[in-house]
Amino acid sequence: MLMVGAIPAGYVYFVSLYPQWAEGFSPVQTGLALIPSTVTVVLTATLGTRRLCAALTVSSRPGSGWSFGPADGWPDRQRS
Fold first, then answer.
1. What's the predicted TM-score (pTM) here?
2. How confident is residue 71, by pLDDT bands cut at 50, 70 and 90?
3. Closest Cα to residue 31, out of 42, 19, 44?
4. How far apart are the two ends of the chain, measured CA to CA in Å?
5. Are the beta carbons of 16 and 30 closer than 8 angstroms?
6. Using an 8 Å Cβ cutoff, are 34 and 18 in contact?
7. For labeling, which of 15, 39, 43, 59 is most exposed (least CB within 10 Å)?
8. Rounded-to-integer distance, Cα 47 and Cα 53, Å
9. Whole-number average pLDDT of the chain
10. Helix (H, G, I), strand (E, B) or coil at 59
């Protein structure tokens, strides 16, 4: 779970430093240059999640979680 937050944080950090160091942008110019990518990520995540949730109906969701049970030996094996 740590990597879920660490990867985007590192991406944002280094992507914002590159225009400043390599291209000579000011911090404000860098922030303005990153607006299109930020809007793209927000819209893709929002609209993509809505479409994905709409595509996964109630009847198709439970099967995905239960499919890993037999591979693990559940319910035959007791966990301690």
1. 0.54
2. low
3. 19
4. 24
5. yes
6. no
7. 59
8. 10
9. 76
10. coil
CA distances from 59 to 21, 55, 62, 65 (A): 52, 11, 7, 12
Hey, what are 70's tokens? 């037999």
d(CA 77, CA 69): 10
Q: How confident is the model at residue 21 (pLDDT cuts 50, 70, 90)?
A: very high
Amino acid at 24: G
Q: With 70 as the cut, is the pLDDT of residue 74 above it?
A: no
Q: What is the pLDDT of residue 73?
A: 53
Q: How far apart are CA 65 and CA 37, in angstroms?
A: 33
Structure tokens at 28: 């404000």
In angstroms, the CA 54 to CA 51 distance is: 5
- Measured between alpha carbons, how far is residue 19 from residues 8, 57, 64 in Å? 18, 43, 43
Cis peptide before 62 (omega within 30 of 0): no
